[in-house]
Design brief:
This protein has 21 helices and four strands. A four-stranded antiparallel beta sheet has the order 2-1-3-4. Helix 2 runs antiparallel to helix 14, helix 8 packs across helix 12 and helix 13 runs antiparallel to helix 14. The termini are far apart.
């Protein structure tokens, strides 16, 4: 676009066009698109047995009653498992083209259209997903998709206001999490939270036991480092280069440690992707010297056509206004965690682990193939989950960024009550040997046949010490068995 008019206009256009952030845009758009693929794949594999026509919490029943909690195509056209498949496969296809960078080679509006479609399709799922879609990373993915779509295609330089809004999203995510910890459990303030966290986190990973067995002085350093990374470093994202790039690198490093020591679905991965918004091309070139820069993607010289500039600035104002309640929330004594302040899930508040559980209680479901004495222990076998701890000899596995929704909900049960509607529905499905439900599990001890009895136990789990692992081959030690439900006999 030829530059004309006042010097003020020219200066604004020069500032708006962030010509030294092309690699950041590539990572932001392609990375978020990949995570949309993961999210839709998770839904494709799990939504129907959890929330489908015959799921634990059927979506049609929700739509016939209170309805979706926000905009959803299913509210307008009704839900069916077949329609869900169409939505998921459409989402995967659109996200795959964005991950491959195809729309980015077209007009400036084309990537935005793709991300708006992803935002709408996935929001349609989240808004009828009930407790199984009540996690903070669901709204984070939606907000990230809406925002990075506004970075445009290779025909324009990345708009600086959108990069700043992405940094503001990272700030809310990190600083919000830091404040919720500082205001919450005193274990964070006295630096003892990591004495427990690796062992009691929702879904430990392969290295979680090693992390837990580290010396206590190391755990105190972890907690202190967490406060620095979440309460101080996010402010540096808005400082001129090279400080902003260094701040982003520190956030990425801490997130990689969380990736290595736990399973938090795509929360850590999307934080890593979004933090790249503050890293300019010069900093990337230090890491990848052979990267040719923006010339590899075509040529551009400015912020774009007037209509595109107006669209970007209008969206900037929209996102700034949407984020005002979240800004107030950050400094509120009654800070909300993972809360949306509007129906569109933009400008959200984030945070995690404001309180730390000191011991791990696991819910274990057992079945027996024959009728027997209600108090006897003969013939009982455990149903095994993919990620949730069960067999003490089984090493935890890495699943993130994939989200095992049922396993995560099982972690919440001991924190409240096992008498949840979805959990009683799960037990009923196991009694029926429902094939779709059984596919959510790692081990069905009855190989597709219905059990005669079922019961629910709770155990206290702790990681095995090095000596216990060497002598007994155990990753977990479990004790304090208690009967929570049953035995219930099949009629």
């Amino acid at each position: 676009m030829p530059r004309s008019g006042s010097g003020t206009y020219d200066g604004l256009m020069d500032w708006l066009a962030a010509s030294d952030y092309w690699m950041a845009r590539e990572i932001l758009q392609r990375g978020v698109a990949v995570l949309f693929i993961v999210a839709f794949a998770s839904t494709l594999n799990q939504f129907r047995p959890l929330l489908g026509d015959h799921g634990l919490l059927p979506a049609p029943r929700l739509l016939a009653g209170p309805g979706a909690r926000g905009p959803s195509v299913f509210s307008r056209w009704g839900y069916s498992d077949r329609k869900l498949l169409v939505v998921c496969w459409a989402g995967i296809a659109i996200a795959a083209t964005l991950a491959a960078g195809l729309p980015q080679s077209g007009p400036a509006w084309l990537p935005l259209l793709g991300f708006l479609l992803l935002w709408g399709l996935y929001q349609s799922i989240v808004n009828i997903g009930q407790v199984f879609y009540g996690f903070g990373w669901e709204m984070l993915l939606l907000e990230a998709g809406f925002t990075v779509g506004l970075l445009g295609s290779h025909q324009v330089d990345p708009p600086r206001t959108i990069l700043l809004l992405t940094a503001w999203l990272v700030f809310r995510l990190e600083f919000g999490a830091g404040m919720i910890k500082w205001r919450g459990d005193p274990a964070w303030r006295n630096l003892t939270a990591l004495y427990y966290h690796h062992e009691t986190q929702p879904m430990p990973g392969p290295l979680s036991r090693r992390a837990h067995l580290a010396p206590r002085w190391w755990h105190r350093c972890e907690a202190a480092g967490n406060h620095v990374a979440q309460l101080a470093v996010p402010f540096l994202l808005f400082v001129p280069q090279p400080v902003a790039s260094l701040a982003a690198a520190l956030i990425i490093a801490t997130q990689l440690w969380l990736v290595a020591s736990g399973n938090f679905a795509w929360l850590n991965w999307i934080t890593i992707v979004l933090a790249c918004c503050a890293i300019n091309d010069a900093a990337f070139r230090l890491v990848v010297p052979f990267w040719p820069g923006k010339s590899a993607f075509g040529t551009t010289t400015d912020a774009g056509a007037p209509w595109w500039i107006v669209l970007v600035l209008a969206a900037t104002v929209l996102l700034v206004v949407a984020g005002i309640p979240a800004l107030r929330n950050l400094f509120s004594r009654r800070q909300l965690m993972n809360a949306s302040f509007n129906r569109w899930q933009l400008g959200n508040a984030y945070g995690a682990f404001g309180s730390i559980t000191r011991e791990r209680i696991e819910v274990v479901i057992e079945g027996a193939p024959e009728q027997g004495s209600p108090g006897g222990d003969e013939g009982w076998s455990e149903y095994e989950f993919h990620g949730k701890p069960g067999d003490p000899r089984r090493r935890p596995r890495q699943f993130a960024p994939y989200h095992l929704r049922l396993d995560w909900m099982m972690w919440f049960l001991p924190l409240g009550s096992v008498h949840q509607r979805w959990f009683h529905a799960l037990l009923a499905k196991l009694m029926e040997a429902d094939p779709a439900t059984l596919r959510l599990l790692r081990v069905d001890p009855f190989q597709g046949r219905p059990p005669a009895r079922i019961r629910v136990l709770t155990y206290r789990y702790r990681f095995a010490t090095s000596a216990e692992y060497r002598t007994e081959g155990l990753y977990w030690i479990r004790s304090d068995r208690r009967l929570a439900i049953g035995p219930v006999e099949r009629t």
